[in-house]
């Protein structure tokens, strides 16, 4: 018994040694900053002077802050539009590719749709700023050449919102597309064939067989998409600076400016805690509601 | 006796040893990045607002200093950003992380921010000590620029460059509508008339274009209309400087211890009128929607001869030349008169960080940076206006233009109410609010509502700071 226990302990120690580096990385770069944010939210700190403990004052100030409330609404609006389009378009494209294309074409499409995801959001946003520029952007250039009215893409509230949504959807579409291609590819063929033999139309096959079977993937895409887009930063920071006015002023942009430009690190941490709470609630609601429509076979 | 990690199980002692070794290694690595032997060479770290490739070229300006101080190296580190507030936020983060440079390039925009946070060292004692050495420098520099570098009676920087908001114009576009050159005392109406005629040419040509920022934006119209975003005042003090270096200079009369920016006045009538004018120009198609940021894109557009007029300072001369414009294809005039012909300006300089362990050495280096030779090395090719009037010569502008280069410096002497941009200690929050509310006004067409919002933003920022 003794040698066996000792051996098990040695194996366990070896296991811990193997994951020690990962644990350190997770602790230093994820866990510690999270805990730090919660603690910092109770302080007033400009990163230069000594931090001053102020209890819940930052959270009280948040309740009066119209900017953060507005930014949460803006972010939620953008997130809903982006996630809806990403999921709907990703699923539609995956269905098209799965149904009609050969393996080569399927792989080609997979690569093509996934490619934008490999570029950094910041560099894509810089390019898109030029593409959508009101005055000399390529889109307005062609609209003008076709004698169509030009669009104030980045200088009107509606235009800027639409542009941010378009760019974010275009860049992230590959993720949902790949998810749905994989989900559709793993559907049980016998069930599909049985439905087809029973005379189910394509629409009915999709609505009553495929969609329920891939509903866990839909839930995953919605959840991950929502969490990501609620943290939208690169596109509005680079393309619109949150404008015009506050039309694309997302919460993370407000947090960044509050912390790193206004040097209110405590208050920015309180904002982050608020965003964390909002995301937690949204995700919990998603999972609760999902019990009614997600089918786990 | 060696152990093989992959074939032999790890003992608890072994694990602890490995952990301790890792910690020591990490500690050593951490130390090595910042260590310097006390007897080894000293390095003066200088933070500048540019890319690293350009920063490397600045080392030429340290040649004489390094030769005079054996064992001392000067290292310029470039940091990029969309505008000064972006640069300052990165620099402040660097300082907060305990990695402060000895010297930092800080323009008017950030002078009070750094001084109020007690990050910058006042230069008073150094300047008093080396007064005789600095007499020729101050005799050559307009007192308005020196006053802009003061805060609460103390001098924080020696101006090394400046730019006043003048009006650049395309000579060919203005000539094509029958205007050879606007008069020195031209008015807002003259400007409007020219902008209308140039825009009527079509083919994507506009009479006027601008960028959203604090310097050289619609804020120039605000100054000309007698308005400001903040109440203007002056700090007491500074007599020691004025009495020492400018005792009989009429341009120094009334100068005090730096600009004191008081309560916000962002929704006052002259300010609203100025922004309304921008909206009017956009609605009438005389100007496109402005970009937010430093103005690099605007210079590029101007160089493509699609813009009749744009606000620019001396730095535009080199910028337009580098963008391919030939001397003679553009020129510069004073900003037009509205209620007055008051101009705004921003000045640049280098400040010593309070945290520096080499302050005396840093001061010796700062003095060398304001010599004509080093100013030339720091800003080659007319990419700024020099604060030393003796450096403003026809020969300097012969290869780049503009023909009327005297406008750059004469703005200070001709219009004695010319003042720095309003940059209080909460400049970063102000810049964000100004950009946000300006774009709001331009997209909604409602200047008053946007400026009411700006007023509220500035009140909140002033209170928080």
From TrEMBL, chain A:
<keyword id="KW-0813">Transport</keyword>
<comment type="similarity">
    <text>Belongs to the binding-protein-dependent transport system permease family.</text>
</comment>
<dbReference type="GO" id="GO:0055085">
    <property type="term" value="P:transmembrane transport"/>
</dbReference>
<feature type="transmembrane region" description="Helical">
    <location>
        <begin position="151"/>
        <end position="170"/>
    </location>
</feature>
<dbReference type="InterPro" id="IPR035906">
    <property type="entry name" value="MetI-like_sf"/>
</dbReference>
<keyword id="KW-1133">Transmembrane helix</keyword>
<dbReference type="Pfam" id="PF00528">
    <property type="entry name" value="BPD_transp_1"/>
</dbReference>
<dbReference type="InterPro" id="IPR000515">
    <property type="entry name" value="MetI-like"/>
</dbReference>
<keyword id="KW-0472">Membrane</keyword>
<dbReference type="InterPro" id="IPR051393">
    <property type="entry name" value="ABC_transporter_permease"/>
</dbReference>
<protein>
    <submittedName>
        <fullName>Multiple sugar transport system permease protein</fullName>
    </submittedName>
</protein>
<feature type="transmembrane region" description="Helical">
    <location>
        <begin position="211"/>
        <end position="233"/>
    </location>
</feature>
<dbReference type="GO" id="GO:0005886">
    <property type="term" value="C:plasma membrane"/>
</dbReference>
<feature type="transmembrane region" description="Helical">
    <location>
        <begin position="12"/>
        <end position="43"/>
    </location>
</feature>
<feature type="transmembrane region" description="Helical">
    <location>
        <begin position="265"/>
        <end position="289"/>
    </location>
</feature>
<keyword id="KW-0762">Sugar transport</keyword>
<keyword id="KW-1003">Cell membrane</keyword>
<feature type="transmembrane region" description="Helical">
    <location>
        <begin position="72"/>
        <end position="96"/>
    </location>
</feature>
<feature type="domain" description="ABC transmembrane type-1">
    <location>
        <begin position="72"/>
        <end position="286"/>
    </location>
</feature>
<keyword id="KW-0812">Transmembrane</keyword>
<feature type="transmembrane region" description="Helical">
    <location>
        <begin position="108"/>
        <end position="131"/>
    </location>
</feature>
UniProtKB/TrEMBL annotation, chain B:
<dbReference type="Pfam" id="PF01547">
    <property type="entry name" value="SBP_bac_1"/>
</dbReference>
<protein>
    <submittedName>
        <fullName>ABC-type glycerol-3-phosphate transport system substrate-binding protein</fullName>
    </submittedName>
</protein>
<dbReference type="InterPro" id="IPR006059">
    <property type="entry name" value="SBP"/>
</dbReference>
<dbReference type="InterPro" id="IPR006311">
    <property type="entry name" value="TAT_signal"/>
</dbReference>
<dbReference type="InterPro" id="IPR050490">
    <property type="entry name" value="Bact_solute-bd_prot1"/>
</dbReference>
């Amino acid at each position: 018994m003794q040698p066996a226990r000792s051996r098990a302990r040695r194996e366990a120690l070896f296991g811990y040694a193997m994951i020690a580096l990962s644990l350190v990385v997770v602790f230093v770069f994820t866990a510690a900053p999270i805990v730090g944010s919660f603690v910092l939210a109770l302080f007033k700190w400009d990163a230069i002077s000594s931090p001053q403990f102020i209890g819940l004052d930052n959270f009280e100030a948040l309740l009066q802050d119209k900017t953060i409330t507005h930014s949460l609404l803006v972010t939620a609006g953008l997130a809903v539009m982006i996630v809806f389009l990403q999921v709907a378009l990703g699923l539609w494209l995956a269905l098209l590719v799965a149904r009609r294309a050969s393996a080569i074409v399927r792989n080609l499409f997979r690569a093509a749709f996934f490619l934008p995801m490999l570029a950094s959001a910041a560099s894509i946003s810089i390019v898109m700023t030029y593409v959508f520029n009101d005055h000399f952007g390529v889109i307005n250039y062609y609209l003008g050449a076709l004698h169509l009215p030009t669009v104030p893409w980045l200088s009107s509230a509606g235009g800027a919102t639409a542009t941010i949504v378009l760019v974010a959807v275009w860049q992230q579409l590959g993720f949902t597309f790949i998810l749905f291609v994989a989900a559709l590819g793993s559907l049980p063929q016998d069930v599909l064939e049985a439905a087809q033999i029973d005379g189910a139309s394509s629409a009915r096959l999709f609505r009553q067989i495929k969609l329920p079977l891939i509903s866990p993937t839909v839930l995953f895409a919605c959840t991950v998409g929502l969490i990501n887009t609620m943290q939208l930063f690169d596109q509005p920071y680079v393309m619109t600076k949150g404008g015009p006015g506050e039309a694309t002023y997302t919460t993370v942009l407000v947090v960044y400016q509050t912390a790193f430009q206004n040097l209110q690190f405590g208050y920015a941490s309180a904002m982050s805690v608020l965003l964390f709470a909002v995301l937690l609630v949204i995700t919990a609601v998603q999972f609760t509601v999902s019990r009614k429509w997600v089918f786990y076979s | 006796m060696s152990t093989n990690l992959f074939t032999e199980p790890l003992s608890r002692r072994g694990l602890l040893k490995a952990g301790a070794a890792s910690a020591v290694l990490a500690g050593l690595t951490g130390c090595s990045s910042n260590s310097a032997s006390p007897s080894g060479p000293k390095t003066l770290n200088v933070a500048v607002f540019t890319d690293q490739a350009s920063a490397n070229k600045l080392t030429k300006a340290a040649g004489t200093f390094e030769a005079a101080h054996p064992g001392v190296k000067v290292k310029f580190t470039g940091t990029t950003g969309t505008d000064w507030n972006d640069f300052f936020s990165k620099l402040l983060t660097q300082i907060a992380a305990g990695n402060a440079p000895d010297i930092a390039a800080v323009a008017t925009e950030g002078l009070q921010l750094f001084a109020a946070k007690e990050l910058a060292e006042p230069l008073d004692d150094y300047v008093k000590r080396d007064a005789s050495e600095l007499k020729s420098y101050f005799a050559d520099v307009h007192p308005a620029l020196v006053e802009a570098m003061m805060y609460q009676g103390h001098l924080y920087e020696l101006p090394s460059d400046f730019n006043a908001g003048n009006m650049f114009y395309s000579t060919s576009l203005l000539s094509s509508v029958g205007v050879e050159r606007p008069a020195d005392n031209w008015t807002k109406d003259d400007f409007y008339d020219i902008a209308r005629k140039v825009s009527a040419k079509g083919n994507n040509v506009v009479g006027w274009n601008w960028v959203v920022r604090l310097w050289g934006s619609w804020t120039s119209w605000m100054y000309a209309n007698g308005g400001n975003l903040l109440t203007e005042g002056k700090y007491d003090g500074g007599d020691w400087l004025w009495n020492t270096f400018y005792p009989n200079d009429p341009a120094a009369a009334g100068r005090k211890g730096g600009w004191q920016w008081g309560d916000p006045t962002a929704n006052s009538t002259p300010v609203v009128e100025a922004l309304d004018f921008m909206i009017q120009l956009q609605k009438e198609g005389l100007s496109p929607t402005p970009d937010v940021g430093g103005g690099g894109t605007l210079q590029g557009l101007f160089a493509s001869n699609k813009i009749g007029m744009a606000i620019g300072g001396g730095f535009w001369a080199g910028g337009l030349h580098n963008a391919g414009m030939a001397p003679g294809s553009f020129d510069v005039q004073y900003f037009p008169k509205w209620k007055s012909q008051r101009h705004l300006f921003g000045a640049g300089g280098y400040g010593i960080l309070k945290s520096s362990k080499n302050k005396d050495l840093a001061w010796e280096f700062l003095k060398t940076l304001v010599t004509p030779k080093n100013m030339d090395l720091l800003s080659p090719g007319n990419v700024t206006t020099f604060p030393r009037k003796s450096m403003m010569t026809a020969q300097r502008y012969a290869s780049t233009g503009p023909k009327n280069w005297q406008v750059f410096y004469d703005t200070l002497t001709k219009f004695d109410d010319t003042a720095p941009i309003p940059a209080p200690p909460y400049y970063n929050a102000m810049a964000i609010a100004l950009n946000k509310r300006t774009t709001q006004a331009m997209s909604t067409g409602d200047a008053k509502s946007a400026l009411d919002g700006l007023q509220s933003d500035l009140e909140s920022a002033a209170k928080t700071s």
